[in-house]
Amino acid sequence: MWSGPGHTGGLRVDSQHDIASHARADKAQASERWYALAVHARQERAAATGLSQRGFEVFLPTRCERRLWSDRVQRMTLALFPGYLFLRTGLTAARRVEILRVRQVYDLVGRTPGHPDIARHVSESEIESLKQLLRSERELHAEDHLVRGAEVLVCHGPLRGVRGALVSEPGGHKRLAVQIPLLGRSVRTWLSRDDILETHAIRAG
Question: How crowded is residue 91: how many other Cβ atoms within 10 Å of its Cβ?
Fold first, then answer.
């Protein structure tokens, strides 16, 4: 599924159009952006450590889970999105090679086949909203799908600055879902009276 680009022998001569296209791609990828990485199951922390040791800025969102055993209660720290983490870099072909040298990593999510230095990025606002959600220390529920709801911005309260979808649940309860479309995943949390929302149109950052 996460295969690298194929290798063919022979000499390739790029046209002026190809050279210009590559130059534009290099310039576009020169700025640092957030990318999602697919990693081996239950190897998220090891992958994050390996990438950090190579000088990359890594964001591994986690959640705490309590597991009951016959003689004790164990608290475990688990990846919020199993099999994925986020990395910030100015993506180039050389950087991708360096990323893939960490053995727990499969590849970048949303990479363009045949172009090792081009991949879809995760917006800054999505990452910042996710970080703020984690800092709030509220109970989180990760979903393996996106949800429908009015797009809102929290402008007051512990979740101030968070952008997400407002979800109505049975009983009149309201939840806020931060979504990562590239992964097709979302994270929900409850809303309190202190959370004041703006529901005007919001552009992705």
Answer: 26
Q: For the full predicted model, state whether its pTM sits above 0.70.
A: yes
Cβ–Cβ < 8 Å for 190, 171? no
Among 20-24, 33-37, 66-70, 170-174, the range scoring the smallest mean pLDDT is 20-24
Domain match, 129 and 79 both = no
Q: Are residues 142 and 171 in the same domain?
A: yes
Distances (CA, A) of 62 to 25, 45, 119, 156, 163: 33, 10, 24, 25, 19
User: What residue numbers bound the domain in which 43 lies?
Assistant: 16-108
Confidence of residue 163 (pLDDT cuts 50, 70, 90): very high
Spatial contact of 93 and 111, defined as CB atoms under 8 Å apart: no
